[in-house]
Amino acid sequence: MKDRFSFFMDMRIIQSLKYWLVILCLCFSIPPTIADNVVTSGTTLKVSLCTTIVSVNNMVIQSGTTLDNAGIMILKKDLTNENAVSNAIGSGTVVSSGTNSQAINGENIIQNLTVDNSTGITIGGSTNVNGTLALTNGRVDLGSSNLLLGPSATISGTPSSMIMIIVTGSGELQKEFAPGFSDSFTFPVGDNTGTAEYSSVTLSFSGGTFSSGNYIGISLVNKKYPDANITGNYLNRYWTITQSGIIGFTCNANFQYVIADVTGTENKISCTKVDPLPWVTYALTNSDTHILSAIGINSFSSFTGVKSTTPPENQDLVNITIPDGTSNCFDATQTLTVAGNGNTLVVENNGSATLVAGNNILLLGATKVNSGGYLHAYITTTATYCGSIYNALVENPEKELLSLGENQKNQWIMIYPNPTTDYIILELNQDENLPVVYVAIYNMNGKPILQQTMEGENKRQLSLSGQPVGIYRINVRSYYSSEIAKIIKNQLYI
Fold it and tell me: What DSSP designation does 266 have?
């Protein structure tokens, strides 16, 4: 009886040792002759809640296998899911924390994913994360694969050039949004082209309809956008935003770049949507923070920073403010479209904007020049655009278009009497001593009724005799200064 009992206990010990040997094979370093950890077809591997397993070799999930991870699965090497369709691998957490570069391959649906590998991981195949993507250490390279964050997914960590998602291939970092989403989301993306550079995109939605399965996708290229019209001042970086299942939205966007991206003069660059044509130009860059901003986006495509010395054929100006003390010039060889469709162009006090086009300037909507601001818009027939406007006159002033805010304060000129019944006196600031001053008066249709040149004089009488009662604009400019004012002609009663 004792011998039978001893034999039974020996068998129990052997079975227990076999069990712990399997666990040790999963959890501890084994000589390289040991094969991958394979979950064979037709089986289920369960990791219970509050349980942690460590795979020191490649983890392979064969087709037809179920991996039900409710705990924590720590991977020291690759994870390969051989199922042909998206396959959920549990409600727990997958941690990539190897010492060499790792890969997550196949069609995986992961609840929580932690990246803690300083050498980085790559994604091969479409991976969905529905819970928390924890960027603890290292980069995630998407290559040609997409990484989709579900509607409830969040990102934790402190992204930087060392901790980010690389989206320079054909793959995208995608985010699905819950119905009625009205908030901000930051895509912690960048490139590892030569020097790793963090260049995130933040989108802030204030409206839109988000259908089931929607997403926004982000990718980028660390080069100048391939448009021959981009010369002079631009970024060697552009972002492409795609979307599916989102309609009727309004969105503001911030694009982070690095100073090494800048060619030319940074503070001349504006955030510009360059595809599809025409260019849509938004605000000037913030050269202190190196952030491009676009307000009022209602469609996505490719965005970059540009103030080209070669004008585009057509350009739209959208939700732009020219602040106090800032001058800017916008041009197009054909048509320049300003504001419209709820968008604005605002020139603030002491701000200055010049609009130059080869054929048309369309002031469609809320174009506003505050008191003391300056807006000059004209058609050039000499191919003279923003790069040289201060050295040329408008050769065909009959096509010139002027716009002026109400109650503009004249800093350089005095005009009196105003209102008038016949003539006005134009008097320049006595501190000015300019050899040549160009003067033009236009009716409300933009047609010139008077053009003269003043040389070495500060005062001149100008006649409106024979002109109908109405409102006129006078444009006075020299090489250094320019001013626009309103003239009112009244009827003379006897």
Answer: G
Q: What is the tens place of the pLDDT at every residue in 180-229?
A: 999 999 999 999 999 999 999 999 999 899 999 999 999 999 999 999 99
Q: How far apart are CA 77 and CA 119, in angstroms?
A: 12
Q: How far apart are the first and last CA of the chain?
A: 142
Domain limits at 341?
Answer: 313-376+397-409
Instruction: Decide: residue 199, CB within 10 A, 0-12 exposed, 13-18 middle, 19+ buried.
Output: buried
Please name which of 53, 96, 101, 51 lies closest in space to residue 76, comparing C-alpha atoms: 96
pLDDT tens digit sequence for 130-163: 999 999 999 999 999 999 999 999 999 999 999 9
Residue 447: Cβ-neighbour burial (10 angstroms; 0-12, 13-18, 19+): exposed
DSSP string, 4-34: HHHHHHHHHHHHHHHHHHHHHHHHS---TTS
**Main-chain phi, psi angles of 116, to 5 degrees:** -140, 60
Cα–Cα nearest to 229, from 157, 333, 141? 333
- Do 232 and 264 belong to one domain? yes
Contact 480, 437 (CB under 8 A): no
What is the per-residue DSSP string for 297-364?
E-S--EEEEEEESS--SEEEE-SEEE-TT-EEEEEESSEEEESBTTBEEEE-TT-EEEEEESSEEEE-
pTM above the 0.90 mark?
no
In terms of DSSP bridges, do strands 262-263 and 344-347 run parallel, antiparallel, or are they unpaired?
Answer: unpaired
At 347-361, the pLDDT tens digits run 988 788 889 999 999
Mean pLDDT value across residues 49-56: 94
pLDDT in tens, 15-32: 444 444 344 434 443 344
On whether the CB atoms of residues 182 and 204 are closer than 8 A, the answer is: no
Into how many domains does the chain fold? Answer: 3
Q: What is the DSSP pairing of strand 87-88 with strand 66-69?
A: unpaired
Look up residue 222 and give its DSSP letter.
S
The CATH number linked to 430 is 2.60.40.3080
Does a structural domain hold residue 441? yes
